Amino acid sequence: MKDRQLFYQPNICTGCKQCMMACSLLSGGTCGVEDSLIRVLVHPEFGFAQVIVSDQCQYTDCQGGCVSICSLNVLKLAKASEWSRLIQDETWEPVPVFHNERF
Questions:
Q1: Helices in 35-102 by DSSP H: which ranges?
Q2: For the whole model, what pTM was predicted?
Q3: How far apart (Å, rounded) are the C-alpha atoms in residues 98 and 8?
Q4: How far apart are CA 59 and CA 24, in angstroms?
Q5: Where are the domains of the chain?
Q6: Helices (H), 1-103
Q7: Sheet of 38-42: strands edge to edge?
Q8: Separation in Å, CA 15 to CA 12, 54, 71
Q9: N or C: at which end does the chain have fewer Cβ atoms within 10 angstroms?
Q10: Does an H or E element contain 41, and which?
Q11: CA-CA distance, 48 to 53, in Å (whole number)?
Q12: pLDDT tens-place string over residues 89-99
């Protein structure tokens, strides 16, 4: 189990995908979706954004680059001691984790 988990604020996230590009640059050295371990899915009709992260991400190699690039501060890399507080806060949700070599 990871000692840190990614949380986000779904009602504020615009789906800009800056986090995807930062992850791609930091993990693969390119600015492309293929190297990103985080994804932002945007509903085509309603525009709602859903952030998901690969189980391959350990948040260590990049030191949370996806969090630091987010201009709206909707991402938070939380330590285990913060999880219960964030889950109780209606504005934060844990980012779902997907199992896949590459999304």
A1: 65-69, 83-88
A2: 0.87
A3: 16
A4: 13
A5: 4-98
A6: 18-28, 65-69, 83-88
A7: 38-42, 49-54, 97-98
A8: 9, 17, 11
A9: N
A10: strand 38-42
A11: 17
A12: 999 999 999 88
